[in-house]
Amino acid sequence: MTDLHLVEVVGVRVEMPSNQPIVLLKEVDGIRYLPIWVGATEATAIAFAQQGLNPPRPLTHDLLKTVIENLGSKVESVHVTNLSDGVFFAKVLLDQGIEVSARPSDAVALALRSGSPIYATEDVFQAAGIEIPDQADDQVEAFREFLDQINPEDFLG
Q1: What pTM was estimated for this model as a whole?
Q2: For the segment 91-113, what is each residue's pLDDT rounded down to a tens digit?
């Protein structure tokens, strides 16, 4: 299997001028970032989970987490596995060796809700990773401040 790198979700933002939401993942033990374009609904779900917001009714990812748990299973981890023709692929690994194919946006939203680790393969980082050296911490901090100032409702159109 390809080398896996633990990543953390930096946040979600809207890329201009396309007005397309992206989720930004950062390699935990490195300087590479992975921007993944996502849909507005998934961006909202990820932002809600990051901010610890619980909607009055469960979102799809909340439902999926509950179904998995009620079936006596749990999410072990999420892997962003491939990039082909500009499309990212992921899988959700459940206990008992079960693997489920998923869109990265759905997988990340589920991982955040279940407290599961997220990994990306070296191949994905080679194909789409962006290096931001440590001296760029000010830029990353500015991005984090931007993320702190937006609301999930900003993604609803």
Answers
A1: 0.83
A2: 999 998 999 999 999 999 999 99
